[in-house]
Amino acid sequence: MSTPVRLRPGDTIGILGGGQLGRMMALAGASLGLKSHIFCPDPDSPAFEVADAYTVAPYEDVAALDVFASQCQAITYEFENVPGPTAAHLDARCPVRPGVRALEVSQDRMWEKEFLRGAGVDIADFARIDSDGDLEAALAAFDGQGVLKTRRFGYDGKGQVMIRQASDARGALATLKHAPAVLERLIGFEREVSVIVSRDVDGNVSAYDLAENVHEHHILKTSTVPASVSGETAERARRMAEQIAASLDYVGVMGVEMFLCGSGADERLLVNEIAPRVHNSGHWTQDACLTSQFEQHMRAVAGWQLGSTERHSDVVMENLIGDECERWPQILAEPNARLHLYGKAEARPGRKMGHVNRITSKRG
Amino acid sequence: MSTPVRLRPGDTIGILGGGQLGRMMALAGASLGLKSHIFCPDPDSPAFEVADAYTVAPYEDVAALDVFASQCQAITYEFENVPGPTAAHLDARCPVRPGVRALEVSQDRMWEKEFLRGAGVDIADFARIDSDGDLEAALAAFDGQGVLKTRRFGYDGKGQVMIRQASDARGALATLKHAPAVLERLIGFEREVSVIVSRDVDGNVSAYDLAENVHEHHILKTSTVPASVSGETAERARRMAEQIAASLDYVGVMGVEMFLCGSGADERLLVNEIAPRVHNSGHWTQDACLTSQFEQHMRAVAGWQLGSTERHSDVVMENLIGDECERWPQILAEPNARLHLYGKAEARPGRKMGHVNRITSKRG
């Protein structure tokens, strides 16, 4: 193994994607004296406003990628659907962190599940679905119920069909335009939790406290920390996340979503999916921890030591979706709230416009 | 009184000066969805890297100022020596906050002292010095000792002569190139403390906890919060700072430096000077409070409500001066430290390159 590239203050981290995650990464990097160069095809990217440099070009524009790579000392991304050839092309010129393998695994639900099973963490039963015959067989094995999901490009509930009875199955694959899919066994999960885990170039791993997440219309609405789970469950969640990061030889921050099934002594965690990037359910770290997930990610990408993931306060993060951002004056008036707005011009329905962290003293 | 201008997220705050203070204001504004436009004659200004727009021009370039004002919804500054005509010219086009009066008062030590005395806060005895005769008379009145300071453009100990005996007085005015000066009575002060106070456009005032400051070579080295003073003294300091802000009809964050003389029941505070801007001795707020002084300032300048000045942790801020910034890897390794670097290329002696906030749980 070669010596990993380590940046110095004043160096530039390239970021693929110019949305709110890229923006908050750039802001966190700037606090550490790191410059950011945002690469995004959208000329109105909110991250451009806070970056030292930006490039507007398609992810397939090889000439633009070459210039970009030549101006950065390390490259990261804010979304997992970075085209594989783009990542590989860049990685040959400048270290791409978390890395090409993390992208590959998380871009395909089937590979992701196979990887997770191989990493030794618990996941829901699943089956590969390429045809109606596959679907029929899998449903028979899963008690007639399941969630059918496209293998690629699904997010915020898009590319999914819930199958609760035989009639739901008819036409399900057609709804997904016969894209390669996966059927997941339907689990009576109680709650959704997530862990933000970080790993540095030397293999040190550190996870933040478990967050309990509530979704509305398939979009994250709140993350509450601490989650109401037993200490053992919280510790198990952290260990699973650390195990996943280590198995991927990961560098940076990763979001690991889990389902919490059963209760009491039967409390059980199943990993749902991983996101090889900073994660919406980790925004609470900005105001409840000394090191935010964004700073942590930039440290790791720079080849630096991780910061402490300790939490100094209890917190509830609430996403501001669509015109909810118009509540900003009321939020500014709340003494324990910290407002974060993303600088997006248009508040379209379902669009993440900002979030608020509400902080209280740590219990116990 | 006319209705004050209030900004909306997406609006632009202009910042005169592109150093670390402007940079940290821009970063704090970005978290709230505010854009920044930096105006600075120095083409290598560290604030440019994180701002949406910047202008490189002298502060006397009226055409550049006009374009700048037309692109901003409010304007602020990071240093108190903004030329008066520049501030007045801009203020006629776009609200300048904290305001022209705060600049005038803080640019001239003599006016500042007269203002402070008028505001009803305690300050050391002082005398206006325009000639050797003035100096002789004042020294006679102040027991033969004092600090002679130029009225304008002094900072970090520059423009000062300490007079402890008659021989020190000879040539003192010549050392200051016969600039108009002020003699301050030498006080046996024990310690230096400061308060960061904020005031919004509606007149609401809120001060942060008192910080205890240690200087080295006339440059701030550390700020410790809480300061080791009685609760009464801390409260009196806060009240004095709030009184000063109100007297100036101030909008924004202001640093108020004070001397702490005597001890126990004789503990006494004398205001030393005010800085009409975010202040180095307030950097601790970034990691020990929900609202940093930078966010607080941007809120006030935007015409928004102030945030809570409550402190969730104890903290010691240490400035990284000159090549001390080379200790960044060690600082990153400290679990309770948060590093801030300013993105300055060259670590010249005496230059502020960054700072570190070391956080511990709040006592009591």
Automatic annotation (TrEMBL), chains A, B:
Residues 113-302 form the ATP-grasp domain. One of its GO terms (molecular function) is 5-(carboxyamino)imidazole ribonucleotide synthase activity. Coiled coil: none annotated. Signal peptide: none annotated. ATP binds at residues 109, 149, 154-160, 184-187, 192, 215, 272-273. It catalyses: 5-amino-1-(5-phospho-beta-D-ribosyl)imidazole + hydrogencarbonate + ATP = 5-carboxyamino-1-(5-phospho-D-ribosyl)imidazole + ADP + phosphate + 2 H(+). InterPro entries: ATP-grasp, ATP-grasp_carboxylate-amine, ATP_grasp_subdomain_1, PreATP-grasp_dom_sf, PurK, PurK_C, PurT/PurK_preATP-grasp, Rudment_hybrid_motif. Pfam families: ATP-grasp, PurK_C, RS_preATP-grasp-like. Keywords: ATP-binding, Ligase, Nucleotide-binding, Purine biosynthesis. Pathway: Purine metabolism; IMP biosynthesis via de novo pathway; 5-amino-1-(5-phospho-D-ribosyl)imidazole-4-carboxylate from 5-amino-1-(5-phospho-D-ribosyl)imidazole (N5-CAIR route): step 1/2. Its EC number is 6.3.4.18. Belongs to the PurK/PurT family. Homodimer. Catalyzes the ATP-dependent conversion of 5-aminoimidazole ribonucleotide (AIR) and HCO(3)- to N5-carboxyaminoimidazole ribonucleotide (N5-CAIR). Catalyzes the ATP-dependent conversion of 5-aminoimidazole ribonucleotide (AIR) and HCO(3)(-) to N5-carboxyaminoimidazole ribonucleotide (N5-CAIR). This is N5-carboxyaminoimidazole ribonucleotide synthase. It comes from Roseibium aestuarii. The gene is purK.
